[in-house]
Description:
By secondary structure, the protein is mostly helical. The chain has two domains: about 10-45, no CATH class; about 55-130, Arc Repressor Mutant, subunit A (Orthogonal Bundle), CATH 1.10.10. The protein has helices spanning about 10-25, 50-55, 55-80, 85-95, 100-110, and strands at about 30, 40, 115, 130. Strands 1-2 form a two-stranded antiparallel sheet.
Amino acid sequence: MKVLRYVNMFNRGIERVKTMLNDNGNPEPLFTVDKITVFEAMVKPSLSINLVTNKEKVTKMVTKTVTKQTEIVNEILAFCDTPRTLTQIMEHTGLKHRYNTKKHYIDPLIETGFLVMTLPDKPSSKFQQYQRAKS
């Protein structure tokens, strides 16, 4: 395709990449054009000025995320006064993905001792339930 001059015929792809990276505050990329149908753009990492100028925006986003996660954790702990299955916990909190719920909420709560498994010898049992640890 390159030999037939169909690929990057007017050098537009390279210019578009340069423009987009420049607009984003990145340094000039290094290009490899010796492949037949594509070119490679190697971008050097840079400290973006946008992070400094958008510090308040980033802070608000992080605060909102942490607040939401804290609310979910508190909701799980309050709901698990009696033993509950993972499905029940997900339905109660509105979480949709089993793997992510277990990985991001249930497992850390178990590791820190806030939740306990009703069947600790069988962590992957379909009858597994979780309950708030007794103080």
